[in-house]
Amino acid sequence: MMVLKLMHGRHRPDEQTDDWGSSGPYLQIEWLHATLFTTFCLGIKDKEGTEIEFFLDDWEHKKQDGVLVEGLLHYDGVFYGDWEVFEIANDSLLVEAFEISSAKFPKNRDWQDIPKREGVEYD
């Protein structure tokens, strides 16, 4: 099984992390394709088990939903600075299905509106 591991998470893209930030989920993927290290596409299975291509598009406020926000990969409300792809045996880790709805950051939101947390440094 191919897995996308998300790491170095933060609440907002401008949050400074002195340590490695939060660890994210292990997400099942079928494959990863990169073009010129500027375009990334994942092979994932939908709920019916059909393999689909999912591009990790850049988010643009009021222009385009996206997964990459300020250079960070967005998933389930967290912005991840590091990610890793590797293969594992089927039962060695708790792996979740990759959910497109959890990855997309909507164009009608602005991450700068996410409240800053007390005691955390921001750029």
Walk me through this protein's architecture.
This protein has 123 residues and is mostly beta strands. It has one domain. The chain contains 1 helix and 9 strands; from the N terminus they run E-E-E-E-E-E-E-E-E-H. The protein is globular, with a radius of gyration of 15 Å.
Task: Show the helix and strand layout.
Blueprint: E1 2-10, E2 26-29, E3 31-35, E4 39-45, E5 51-55, E6 68-69, E7 72-75, E8 78-87, E9 96-97, H1 100-103
Parallel strand pairs: 2-9
Antiparallel strand pairs: 1-2, 1-8, 3-4, 4-5, 6-7, 7-8
Highlighted features:
123 residues; mainly beta; 1 helix; globular
Condensed summary:
The chain is about 5% helix and about 40% strand.
Spell the H/E element sequence: EEEEEEEEEH
- What would the average pLDDT be, to the nearest integer? 94
Q: What class would the helix/strand composition place it in?
A: mainly beta
Distance between the termini: 38 Å
- Any idea how many domains? 1
- Compute the number of helices: 1
Largest sheet: 6 strands, mixed
Using the CA coordinates, give the radius of gyration: 15 Å
